[in-house]
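Late entry, zinc ion complex.
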Amino acid sequence: MENCLFCKIAEKKIPSTIVYEDEELLAFKDIHPHAPVHLLVIPKTHIGTLSDCSAGHAPLLGKMLALAPRLADEHGVAVAYDEDGAPQRGYKTVINSGPDGGQEIYHLHLHVIGGPHPWRHER
Ligand code: AMP
Ligand code: ZN
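Prediction complete; structure with ligand written out below:
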């Protein structure tokens, strides 16, 4: 898609700090992080928004979501349980959709946001 920032990032025409890549997906660091860990997972193919997806996109969407815990683990924010079984650490997975959903870039992306508190710049 011409003039799509994230298509250009996927094509490596614009630099980004890539943390994961396969045939279908790219994950990179958000340029304006809202927390110590702020990653974006995108499909390499252009999809404008979650509302452009239907049941046929379920495998791709599932892959995007399933990547989040792996990235969280690699960046030290995966949920772990202490000796009493209480959950520790953690992260948010967010997809903003449309203007009322706070979407600024119209290429589907999943935010993975986490890190040690205090941080309160939640979207
Ligand atoms: P959203 O509001 O859900 O559309 O989020 C768009 C995100 O893209 C924001 O968190 C921006 O900081 C991020 N962003 C914009 N330009 C870039 C870029 N060149 N590289 C990495 N992240 C970017
Ligand atoms: Zn695009």
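The mean pLDDT is 95. Will revisit in the morning.
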